[in-house]
Each structure stands twice: as C-alpha cells, then as structure tokens.
Write a structure and sequence with these properties.
Structural class: alpha+beta
Distance between the termini: 50 Å
Radius of gyration: 22 Å
Helix content: 40-55%
Largest sheet: 2 strands, antiparallel
Number of strands: 6
Number of helices: 7
Shape: elongated
Strand order of the largest sheet: 1-2
C-alpha cells in the first residue's frame, strides 16, 4: 500500500471547477490564458528547489559498522532484533567533472495543471524521476556503482523537493484562487 505525501492545504475544487467551467464557456481564449497563468503558480517553489540544487554538493558517507535495533513485525506483532548499517560522514574529493545530474533534475521540475472532467489539480512535480535521478537524489542516502564497475559506494542525497513544496503550498493556493477570481470577474454579469 502506497501513501501519498501531500501538503494539507488545498483549493476548494468544486468552487474552482465551477469558476473555470464558467470561464471556459464564456471564452476559450480567456481559459487558455488562465491555464498559462496557473502554470506559473509553482514558480516560487521551483525557484527554491533549484536554489537547493545549485548549492554545494552534499558530503559523502560510508558504512561505519552495524547497529542492532528492536523492531516490531507488522504482520505478527512480535518484537525482534534487526541489524542496520551505521553511517558516518566523510569528505569527498571533487574531480571537477560533472555528469549534469542536478542540472537534469532542475530541468524536469514543472507545474502541472489538470482540469479534467473528474479531477482538478495544480501541482509541482518532476518529470522523468528514474531517468534523471530525481527519485534517488531526494533520499537521505543512496548506493551506486562506481564508474560501471562492481564496486558500490554510499552517497548522501540532497532532499530538495518536499521542504520547498510544503513552505510554498499556502502561497500557491492563494495565487490559484486569485487567478481563478480574476478570470471569473472578466465574465460580464447578465
């Protein structure tokens, strides 16, 4: 079972849907302009995410041993011991070369607008999460091969996505409401 993590702020979808349907019915050209404006509502969040990605690289980590923890088995409810890796930070040498990983992640950040018959949403997302590395770069640590060899190393990730998304959610909701209200006000009352 997958749990979707989202900000607790939301636009009243019924109200937004009614306003945008009225705008679309009045003028499809006005609706196209409104959709373009809705695509800009996530620009502040994306700018903050990009600033994190432009920052310094995270430090390296290495496995420093093992630790034993007590965990409860979710299926049986019994307590048991589990061995986990323990990690410590270390300095890494920079070769000066770049694979363009963070640049590719930044290029994939988008504000998506869906105004379908059954769903209305405006959200910031990243495209091509597996191809450009944004899925593992978001994690606290990950493991990868060294230059295609059978040697694996641990590396710290750089959590860039959820922090700015949560901080920018309230502003995004406010901008969405303002854009929908401005478009709705352009419809003449009969």
């Amino acid at each position: 079972m997958q749990h979707r993590v989202t900000a607790d702020l939301a636009v009243d979808q019924d109200k937004l849907r009614k306003r945008l349907d009225a705008v679309k019915e009045f003028s499809p050209a006005l609706m196209r302009g409104t959709r373009k404006l809705l695509r800009t509502t996530g620009d502040e969040v994306i700018a903050e995410q990009s600033a994190i990605l432009d920052g310094p690289l995270p430090r390296g980590i290495r496995a420093a041993g093992k630790r034993v923890v007590i965990r409860r088995n979710k299926k049986t409810g019994k307590l048991g011991l589990r061995t986990l890796n323990a990690y410590r930070e270390q300095d890494v040498r920079s070769s000066g070369r770049s694979t363009g990983l963070r640049k590719g992640i930044k290029a994939g950040l988008r504000t998506r607008v869906v105004l379908g018959k059954t769903r209305t949403e405006v959200r910031v997302q990243t495209t091509g999460a597996r191809e450009n590395g944004s899925a593992f770069w978001q994690s606290k640590k990950f493991r990868h091969r060294v230059f295609g060899r059978d040697e694996f190393v641990y590396q710290q990730g750089q959590p860039y996505f959820w922090g700015p998304a949560y901080r920018g959610a309230a502003g995004m909701v406010r901008r969405i409401d303002d854009i929908a209200d401005q478009a709705f006000k352009q419809i003449p009352l009969e």
